[in-house]
Amino acid sequence: MKAIDPASLSKKENYAFLTQTIVPRPIAFVTTLSKDGVLNAAPFSYFNVVSADPPLLMISIGKRGGDKKDTSRNIVETGSFVVHVTDEANVEEMNATAANLPPDESEVERVGLTPVESTVIDVPGLKEARVRFECKLEKHMTFTGNEGETDVIFGRILHYHVADEVMGESGKVEADKLKPVARLGGKEYAPLGEIFTIDRPK
């Protein structure tokens, strides 16, 4: 087995290794609202749930050239955002929002996505997603590396939205109906794949 010291690798090399080995990763499809009222959308695969009580999720957002990306700047400035689950039906739109647009241009408008009003926050969600989470900023942290900084956002989930068609008869969200898409390394993505069950030890 080969041993590798992360300190011996560049930021790009560490990114490649981590994204090729920590797989699959869920993709947060995030909408935020700028102070000027521009609705931003962007995807992030350094993302996961971190707690059920309180319900918290985390998104890691690398800075671009030392500057905050629109998503992290908007979240820090306004305190709220919406996270959508990326699935087979919206993966193309999700990918299209990764384009590097200026802050005054909306990815939602450019891609042709449909904003929908949220229940408890001002930031709209996206009709094209079948599961979304309305969040408020719980904690913002910044980590500094050798070649840049990363914003880490912890969001408290204030409201869930889920489409009827992904719910089973028991009221459980069924993965085979949701059809989530995961991020792998490089340009690669993966659908749900085969589902199997393992009983947990008592």
TrEMBL record:
Keywords, sorted A to Z: Flavoprotein, FMN
Gene3D superfamilies: Electron Transport, Fmn-binding Protein, Chain A
Segments forming domain Flavin reductase like: 20-175
A GO term for molecular function: FMN binding
Cofactor names: FMN
Protein origin, superkingdom: Bacteria
Pfam families registered for this protein in UniProt: Flavin_Reduct (PF01613)
Coiled-coil features, chain-numbered ranges: none
Membership in a protein family: Belongs to the flavoredoxin family.
PANTHER family per record: FLAVIN REDUCTASE LIKE DOMAIN-CONTAINING PROTEIN, FLAVOPROTEIN OXYGENASE
Record's protein name: Flavin reductase family protein
Organism: Alteribacter keqinensis
